[in-house]
Amino acid sequence: MSKTNKIIYWGSTVWLALGLTSAGIVQLIKMEEEVEVIMQLAYPTYILTLLGIWKLLAVIAILLPKLPLLKEWAYAGIFFNMTGALYSHLIHSEGAIDLFGATLLAPILLLVLTGVSWYYRPADRKLTSKLNPFVK
User: Fold this and answer.
1) Which end of the chain is more exposed for a tag (fewer CB within 10 A), N or C?
2) Within its chain, how far is the Cα of 9 from the centroid?
3) What is the pLDDT of residues 78-112, one digit of tens each?
4) pLDDT lower than 50: segments of the chain
5) Interhelix angle for 68-91 vs 102-119, to 10°?
């Protein structure tokens, strides 16, 4: 792996981990603003606990060495979570969509960071053919 790719991988992964950790903590402590947003989206507030735990577990999975299958699941979970957040905000938006508002910018940024981190991950963090029955 080239030095440039390592910098891209670790830069995107650290920013992704920081973003997910802060979002997970905010959801676990049920910060007032987060509760308001989740209620505006017509979700029950108890979903915040589950989302917060999942985000923190995903951070642990992507930062731990090895465990490529767990990392694949974590990246997929982050992707599903962020696309779900985007979809929810788009469906429940009133009037014009503010692309640079916090409601859409955060999931878009985390989606981009997820894709970059996943794409540039080192070989020891990828599934190999012996671990993945779908790779020949």
Assistant:
1) C
2) 15
3) 999 999 999 998 888 765 555 555 678 889 999 99
4) none
5) 160
